[in-house]
Amino acid sequence: MPDNQNLKQLLQHGFRYAYSLTHNKAQAEDFVQDAWLSMIKRRAPHTKAYFYTVIRNKFLNQLKHEKVVPLISVEATETEESLTATEEEFSNILADKDMIDKALAKVKPLEREIIYLYYFEEYSTAEISELTDLSKGMVCSLIHRTRLKLKKHIQLQEKKVLP
Amino acid sequence: MKKRSLKQHSADFYQNQEMNDHKLEQLLELSTSATDEQPRTIPRSWLNIAAAIIISVSLALTSQHLLMDKDYKSLVPQEIALNHAKQLALEFETDNYIDLDAMMTKLDFQLLASNNTQLNHLKMLGARYCSIQGGLAAQVKLVDEKGIRYTLYQTALTPELKSMELNKTYLDGIEIFQWRENGLFFGLAHSIDQ
B residues 25-54 near A, CB within 8 Å? Predict the structure, then answer.
């Protein structure tokens, strides 16, 4: 059994991941609690990968129950190399916490999820592909498309702020 | 406002999100109480289920040994068709996966509402435990608007199920459709002569 400090870290990671899906603190806490209870009941391994999978499945089940279609249609047009090559395009963005918050709220749950996994967790596209069951090409294209969307939303807010 | 890369902005944004201490302590408490829990007497019904699982696993292993030359991809649909034809009673009655997942605690995988469009017109009646090639599975009973009964199987992917070729199959008047999704194997069966 991992010690309390490790469990706290795992729970905080789970919370951030759930928050990337919901963009709502109360909902994220509910998903984490549900997933945690489920893992305890099943005596499942307390690993981040398993915790994320449980949270994700609970989130997808909830969408399905509410008859919301979570899937995003995306063509696999990008590669890992092209992602790295175009990273420069997304440097030097002028923003504060509030602007990032609003921009993230504008994109879809699975787009936020991919940004969280790629930029915060620094997962490789192969690892994201394994968790999300999307092909690597689709993951790369989704990252690229979401980056463009976020940049656009931030720039729109920037124009409103600056004279 | 700071000029930084999107990567830094996003990473910092999520780094700053934290679950409140009270909630965190509550969840940690749940883990501790689960660990401290005294071993309970195992109900007879569980022993029966365990015995059934052990027998199923032994039979599956024996059959696997005896049928080594047989194609794995034909054994799974056969098992699905056989289970579908039995129409055994439900162990859990519910119409949604959220409740079902909470009820079927013995499964070592998370039940998932599939995105397969074939399931869109089907209503869930409930489920029971079953096994597919020795692995514990959920057997979900569904019904369409005409009252035709369907059986949906979900189980965790084993190396064999992961690499198995998937086809639509017809066996003894039962249509079986198989697919993989989100790390699970799915099999949908219904009688075509109803």
Answer: 27-28, 30-31, 34-35
